[in-house]
Design brief:
Strand content: 15-25%
CATH topology of the largest domain: Tetrahydropterin Synthase, Chain A
Low-confidence stretches: 114-121
Subcellular location: Membrane
Shape: elongated
Radius of gyration: 43 Å
Membrane topology: Single-pass membrane protein
Mean pLDDT: 77
Number of domains: 3
CATH superfamily of the largest domain: Band 7 domain
Organism: Altererythrobacter lutimaris
Structural class: alpha+beta
Family: Belongs to the band 7/mec-2 family.
InterPro entries: Band-7_stomatin-like, Band_7, Band_7/SPFH_dom_sf
CATH class of the largest domain: Alpha Beta
Number of helices: 10
């Protein structure tokens, strides 16, 4: 009887260990989507959370894909504008994996040789670089340099349509244009043009000010000629506002009075 009881306990312990070892814990972090495959065949999608599944044969594989907006490493592209100006732009792509299964199954994995240069989601998203390079070059080539500098973000709006062709399930949220590097001679040319424009505006403002001043003097002279009393009123106003001891001589000089004798030299 005792041996039967001990045998039963041993069997239960072995069964418990087997059951415990047969359960597998899967964790899908927040901001990620889980893809569960069974024998290399898609089984179901898992939302963020912790899952315990009975899989004694270890036939299930979990693939976790980040679905939050991701800023990739900035890239520098050499571009040529419509008017044949060559310059560089630095662009940072902001992408979101909208469909994790389409992205995982429709995007070829990157080679092991290149995998050492990329970490996390950038491993496969690095395939976006050639598409961005081609799209940015075409977008800039359709604009003159001045048009591109006036609205660089608007010039690159059409680039996002090419992303879905290379990376299924991925949407390009934005292209952050972080810098534009012009050659020294082009920067000098733009500086000289801007300086000339500013100098022209300053000269125009000076001419307008002089014209307004001359117009005011002409109006004052006309008013004094038509109303001599204005000169006397202006003199009285000057006398009232004068500070300190002042001497004012009223009347006309002797040579302007009829019959007055001029001083002998």
């Amino acid at each position: 009887m005792i041996w039967d009881l001990l045998a039963g306990v041993v069997i239960l312990a072995v069964l418990a260990l087997f059951l415990r070892a047969g359960f597998v814990k899967h964790t899908v972090p927040a901001g990620h989507s889980g893809l569960l495959y069974r024998n290399e065949v898609f089984a179901e999608a898992l939302e963020p959370g912790v899952y315990r599944r009975f899989d004694p044969l270890r036939s299930e594989q979990l693939v976790v894909i980040a679905t939050v907006a991701t800023a990739l490493s900035p890239n520098v592209f050499e571009v040529i504008s419509k008017d044949q100006f060559s310059f560089r732009v630095m662009v940072t792509p902001l992408v979101t994996i909208a469909n994790a299964r389409e992205f995982h199954e429709g995007t070829p994995p990157i080679s092991k040789d290149m995998a050492q240069f990329y970490t996390g989601p950038e491993m496969r998203l690095s395939l976006l670089n050639p598409v961005l390079s081609n799209g940015i070059m075409e977008a800039v080539a359709a604009k003159t340099l001045e048009e591109f500098l006036d609205d660089p973000a608007g010039a690159l709006e059409g680039v996002s349509t090419e992303v879905a062709k290379v990376l299924p399930g991925v949407q390009l949220d934005n292209l952050l244009l972080t810098s534009i590097t012009l050659p020294p001679e082009v920067r000098k040319m733009f500086t000289e043009v801007e300086r000339a424009r500013r100098e022209g505006l300053a000269g125009l403002e000076r001419a307008r000010a002089e014209q307004a001043s001359l117009r005011a003097l002409a109006n004052a002279a006309r008013n004094l000629a038509d109303n001599p009393q204005l000169a006397q009123l202006r003199m009285l106003q000057t006398m009232e506002t004068a500070k300190g001891a002042k001497t004012f001589v009223l009347g006309s000089p002797p040579e302007s009075v009829p019959g007055a004798e001029k001083p002998q030299g």
